[in-house]
């Protein structure tokens, strides 16, 4: 199996309703069935997501996600073969919010706590997501 890691970010579509609990259930169900794992960070505006798994599976899920009208301005940052998963634990781990602790973590990697993924590198985003993932159970 080719193991692939895909990273993208997007913005919530403010005109459509979004139920994160429901969304997470669907992510978990579909991803588990395809042996895909990852993490989704949502700060109320931006989504940052990492998908890890077989190349065909990650690709299929990403195409579905990219067609979802609940988010817009979807920017694919990277999709590449990797030796191992960074996020093997969750079929989709959700980290929500930008509280004080999360802001401090953000400042480890980025010059200001202005959350602007357009100004960040994929490596810094992965480091940030890895650090906030320690808060997930
Ligand atoms: C920000 C965001 C992240 C999503 N992540 C996933 C995901 O990891 N896996 C998944 O199957 N669907 C994900 N979805 C939902 C898909 O866009 C789509 O609604 C879903 O896969 C349809 O599944 P269903 O046909 O089983 O209802 C995501 C949607 C959004 C808006």
From TrEMBL:
InterPro entries given in the database record: Acylphosphatase-like_dom_sf, BLUF_domain
State the Gene3D superfamilies in the record. Answer: 3.30.70.100
Gene Ontology molecular-function annotations: blue light photoreceptor activity; FAD binding
**Pfam families in alphabetical order:** BLUF
Q: Which residues form the BLUF domain?
A: 3-93
- Say which domain of life the source belongs to: Bacteria
Q: What is this protein called?
A: FAD-dependent sensor of blue light
């Amino acid at each position: 199996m080719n193991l692939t890691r895909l990273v993208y970010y997007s913005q919530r579509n403010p005109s459509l309703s979004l139920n994160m609990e429901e969304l997470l259930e669907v992510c978990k169900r579909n991803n588990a069935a395809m042996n895909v794992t990852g993490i989704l960070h949502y700060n109320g505006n931006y989504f940052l997501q990492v998908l890890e798994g077989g190349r065909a599976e990650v690709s299929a899920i990403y195409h579905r996600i990219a067609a979802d009208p609940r988010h817009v301005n979807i920017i694919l940052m990277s999709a590449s073969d990797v030796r191992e998963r960074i996020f093997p634990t969750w079929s989709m781990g959700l980290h929500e919010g930008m509280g004080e602790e999360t802001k401090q973590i953000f400042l480890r990697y980025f010059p200001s706590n202005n959350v602007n993924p357009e100004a960040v590198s994929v490596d810094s985003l992965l480091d940030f997501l890895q650090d906030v993932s320690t808060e997930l159970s």
